[in-house]
Design goal:
The chain is mostly helical. It is built from 3 helices and 2 strands, in the order E-H-E-H-H. The protein has one domain. Helix content is 48%, strand content 10%. Strands 1-2 form a two-stranded parallel ribbon.
Amino acid sequence: MIGISSDLLFPVQEQVFLAENIKGAVFKTIDSIFGHDGFLVEVEKQSLIISDFYAETNFNQ
């Protein structure tokens, strides 16, 4: 799960709650000034987090 630090529609604290209550979930935060639109703009940051997740979890096996 990836949260955007300035997202007011889906606040980080709510996403942390979800990640803590979903088995196997991992939570990461992206610092962004773009609010809720950060998930549309911060593509490179999201890609790095997702790539790291795949590398760390053996998700492909």
